[in-house]
Amino acid sequence: MREVLMGIEHITDLQGYDHMLYLLALVAWASLGDALRVLLLATAFTIGHTITLLLAGMGWVHPFGGWIEFLIPVTIFCTALWNLRRNAGQGPSRVNRVTYVMTIVFGLVHGLGFSSFFRMMQDDGDGLVMPLLRFNVGVEIGQAALLLGFLALASLLQAAGVRQREQQVFVCAATGAVALLMALDRSPF
Fold first, then answer.
1. Which of 44, 56, 78, 91 could form a disulfide with 115 if both were Cys (CB 3.0 to 4.6 A apart)?
2. pTM to 2 decimals?
3. What is the pLDDT of residue 178?
């Protein structure tokens, strides 16, 4: 149960706002009618996150923290740009498959950013798979709550007259700008 709560906290902790920022950039185009696709995208992100947490937890991957801290906002910025070019209301298409793959790949990077903390919080006798599974259940719960709140707000704004494209441009511009500032601040160059 401790790992489930840690997973929820990982998503909702304002100190780790990069995860929230990534999710917002990822679903900038969405409203409540897109809830299933949004939750599937969040799960794709968790899959990527899980792979690198597992590999790092087993000691097979040793990320260089400075580069990972730089690459995390780069993934947010790239996602904002990717979704900015997307047509609002676009149905399932080849673009969405590319988005799912990109989301998994970017999840790999975000998982590396959290891997050292995850290794430290493990109990020696508990193994790796079950704590990681419980942690990811918490991550999924936290992501679902955050995303459903965003989708509800987006739907309310659209009901009040905000066009979907306006929402998309605003969210992509805001998340992209914050991510760009984060990347410049964390630049390893």
1. 56
2. 0.89
3. 97
